[in-house]
Fold this sequence. Notes:
Layout lengths: L1 H6 L2 H6 L16 E3 L14 E5 L4 E5 L1 E2 L25 E3 L8 H10 L5 E2 L3 E4 L6 H9 L14 E4 L5 E3 L4 E3 L1 H14 L9 E2 L5 H20 L1 E2 L5 H11 L6 H6 L3 E3 L4 E8 L5 E12 L5 E8 L20 E5 L2 H11 L3 E3 L20 E5 L4 H14 L4 E3 L9 H6 L4 H6 L2 E2 L8 H13 L1 H4 L8 H7 L7 E5 L6 H13 L5 E5 L4 H13 L10 H9 L3 E4 L7 H15 L3 E5 L14 H19 L2 E5 L21 H5 L2 E8 L7 E9 L6 E8 L4 E3 L7 E2 L11 H52 L2 H42 L1
Parallel strand pairs: 5-24, 17-18, 17-19, 19-20, 22-26, 22-27, 23-24, 23-25, 25-26
Antiparallel strand pairs: 1-5, 2-3, 2-11, 4-10, 6-7, 7-8, 8-9, 9-10, 12-13, 13-14, 14-15, 15-16, 20-21, 27-28, 28-29, 29-30, 29-31
Helix pairs in contact: 16-17, 19-20, 22-23
Amino acid sequence: MWSSSLLKASTWWLEAAGRLPVHIKRHCSWSVVRVLTRERRGARGACGYHRYASSTTRHAASFSHRRRLGSDPPLALAAVSRRYRSDTSSMMVFPPANPVTVTDIKLYLLSKNIPFHDGHSCLHAPSVFLDPEGTSGRKKEGAGVGVGGKEGFNMFIDKTTGQFLCTDTMMEGSWEDLQDCLELMAKEGKTFLKPSGLLGYLESQEEMEERRREQGEAERIWNSSVPLDDLHEEEVQLIKTMFQITNISNSTLKRFRVQIFKPTKCLVFPWFGGPSSSELKGVKLLSAQIDEAGKVRYTDVTVPKPSSYHSLFGMPLVGRADSQVVLTGNELDTLAVSQATGLPSVALPRGFSCLPPALLPYLEQFKRVTLWLGGDMRSWEASKIFSRKLGLKRCSLVRPGEEQPGAAEALSQGRSLERILKASIPSEHKSIVSFRQLRDEVYGELANVEQVAGVKWTRFLELNRILKGHRKGELTIFTGPTGSGKTTLISEVALDLCMQGVNTLWGSFEINNVRLAKIMLTQFSMQRLEDNLDRYDYWADRFEELPLYFMTFHGQHHLKTVLDTMQHAVYMYDINHVIIDNLQFMMGQENNSMDKLSVQDHVVGAFRKFATDSSCHITLIIHPRKEEDDKDLQTASIFGSAKASQEADNVLILQEKKLVTSPGRRSLQVTKNRYDGDVGIFPLEFQKDSLTFAAPKNKKLKKAEGGAAKEPTTAAMKKKNAKKGEAAETKSETTAVEEGDASVEKRAAKKGSAAAKKLEAAAGEEGDASVEKRAAKKGSAAAKKLEAAAKKVVTTAEKDGAAAETETVEK
């Protein structure tokens, strides 16, 4: 056993108490280490090594005292000279060495004579860190009831991962940690382990200072904030108006202990934890701003950082006898639900982006959980995913729509929140349904076309035109020539989505994670950090906040190991987007008796099924066949059989026109789009300094053969057409006037010349005075005719000009 192997090294552990720890690699159900940081964490935020001190020997057990969410015993890593921050949300995800099943957990507990009963997402068992006799005494006094468990059943074991939590002592760890504890108890004949006899993981000086700094910062903010009751009524109303919570009463804000931080005009929501739920663990500051559209946009900041902030706001107000709860996506919705309905309500710490499994024990006591995470389609999709973790049978969902917005907005609109909650639908569906069950969901997609289309890119607007957005549950195949920049391009595409809150998992089998992280950090900062090392910490701190994770694979690996790791990441971190780079590197250790094409078909089919079952978007990079350099790649150029393109929802091809004297011209082509059928191609321009791609200016999106690119119908085109109409109108008027004047002069000149010739002829023939008289008469008559002809020509020209003007305006 692991505990006995550390028995001989106990003396070394004691001597090393004053030195930096050396991490020991051991098999565990799951583990993570941080990227770009020293992979060393203390008891404040990571699962560390604890040792039990008995009277004769010192045995070891590995678990944590308030371990950080989603962390496990760190692995042995090479020492680094640079000291990085130890708090980041970007992590490397290791594959589960020995995946545990709920059957394995139950059989082991039975073998140790540990009683348990089956919960919704956890097994409930008596805590091994409490004295049974003391627990019995507390039972008589009415205490000792765990969160949602029977009396004394206050230790919760996750059915999926085996992670355990004791809600009375706040001891927490992995399944292997609990096994070590039980083995130690059996070996020494003890009935429980005292938490005071467990030595915590050795923290570095830097980690201790950072933990104290964060705790001090949270206490400073909380002590500097003031209750709303201490403010003047006019100031309170101004704050409520700014946050659009005028319908939230002062008594509700006071009951939830919401305060105002006056220097920044932010609402302060406290996080109280610990066994008594009275210890201040952190705070969340919420600010409100009005955007260009006149809507209020909320921005929150947490202390500690979001990766360490795991508060269920409103949980201290929940009674032990409460059997139903409303789960919301933000604190304002929780206030609205509690005030309007009187039902218990709690808010997730990170909204609809993530439901950490370590919070599941706190929700075990509820027989009915209503998820009302917001009023848009992203919150609706998250509700369906979270209900799988919580247990489908006890969950019901509030479908978003115009009549059912978020809770706080519904309260401000005067809607009945009780009626909306009663209209929630069960999350569990039958195998066969009729259109009657699907009717509302179909209407929801028709009424929210833009939201259903998925998350929009901010750096690749042309992709929004063609693909319309990034959607869950789809499979994208991406290919391109060797050395054309496939990894660089797809890393920026994924980074764009990650910056908008899409939880992303990278599986880079071709290049190592350090190089990949360097590329993405450069793309994130949009500059060469080699030339700006003084700005590295600033950009690294911001990069750490992204929901970005990396698998530790490199080279060839078994498909089952990769799928297990992906499944684990989806459960632990609610991953929405997985990138596999690339398929060929995964096929080396598959069944050698099968040909490569059959192996590839099997792998593609497995990823297709995973994307559908897990509601997760998978981007799969596949090398193309060998093609001639002067020919563009086609869908048929993807290596393997046609199964890859058939299973895919989207097919993207990076085209490259190689040049001899300059870098090749690149373009991104979409050859398949199952969502609405639009396909197309647009140029890319590589920026070497920032390693980014951007569409060149003044170049239009090309319409692919058989595509359905939309014609421009924007306001700019309308304005352009209006200008053309005005120019044509002015030209027509000018032309009409000029033509009228010219024609009058020309016709008058012709008639005058003819009259003059007639007069000369008459004078030559008659030669007397009568000629002059007759000539005068004829000249007068000719002049009158010329004048009449001129008037007639002018009138005709005016009519022609008016007709031309009318025709131009009509056009």
